[in-house]
Amino acid sequence: MTKRRNRLQIGEKQAIKLVASMLFLALSGRNLRGQSVDTSPAPERQQRKVVVSVIHRKLALVENGRVKKVYPVAVGAAGSPSPSGTFEIKNRLVQPTYYHPGKVIPAGAENPLGTRWIGLSAKGYGIHGTNVESSIGKAASHGCIRMHRQDLEELFADLQVGDEVEIHASVDPELDSIFGEAPAERETDRVLTASMAQEPAQ
Questions:
Q1: Cα 124 from Cα 53, distance rounded (Å)
Q2: What is the pTM of this model?
Q3: What is the set of active-site residues?
Q4: What is the pLDDT of residues 38-61, one digit of tens each?
Q5: Exposed/middle/buried for 168, CB within 10 Å: 0-12, 13-18, 19+?
Q6: What does each C-alpha distance from 46 to 38, 70, 157, 158, 160 come to in angstroms?
Q7: Which of 31, 136, 147, 154 is the most exposed place for a label (fewest CB within 10 A)?
Q8: Residues 136, 59: contact at Cβ < 8 Å?
Q9: For 131-137, which contacts have Cβ atoms below 8 Å and span 24 or more sequence positions?
C-alpha cells in the first residue's frame, strides 16, 4: 500500500511538473510574440537641402525632393563673388556678433549679419541677414548670401547643422525647374549707395 501511494505521489509530481512546463512554454511563446522584432521600415530622415542660384538671386529650401519655399537673396558682387559648389552647414548662431579686423559689432540694428548666421563649410561664408535691406535681389555682398530678416529667421528654424547647401553660379535644368527661366543678362547693378559702400565686408 505504501509503495503504491509512493508511486502515485511520484506520478502526481511528474504530472505537475509536466503541466508546469507546458504552461511555462505557452506563456514564454506568448511573451516572445509580444516582443517580436519590429521589421517595419524605420521612418526616413528628412532629406533637406538649400539651393542658391546666383543668376536668379534666389534661394530655395528643398525637402525630400520638393521645393518647400523660394526666397529672394543678395549674392556676391562682381569683385567678391559667392563661392560656387556644394557645402555643408557647420554652425547656426542667433544674434551673432560681427567680427572684422579692427572692428567688432555686437548684435543689434547696426550689425551687418542681422539676427541669424548660418555658417557654411566654405570658411568665412554663410547665409545671414543684413542691415541694408535694399541690397536683397542684387549682387551686392562680399560673397555671403543675404536674406530679409523674416525670411532668414523662417529658414533658420527649418535647417540643421549638416544640411547641404548648393550654390550655383550658372544655370542648369534643375535651377530652371526650381526658379523658372533664368533672367536675361543683367545689366551692372546700379552704383551702391554710400552707406552700402562703406559697410564692413560680409
A1: 19
A2: 0.71
A3: 128, 144
A4: 444 444 567 999 999 999 999 999
A5: buried
A6: 21, 18, 14, 11, 11
A7: 31
A8: no
A9: 131/199, 132/195, 132/196, 132/199, 134/193, 134/196, 135/74, 135/196, 136/72, 136/73, 136/74, 137/57, 137/72, 137/73, 137/74
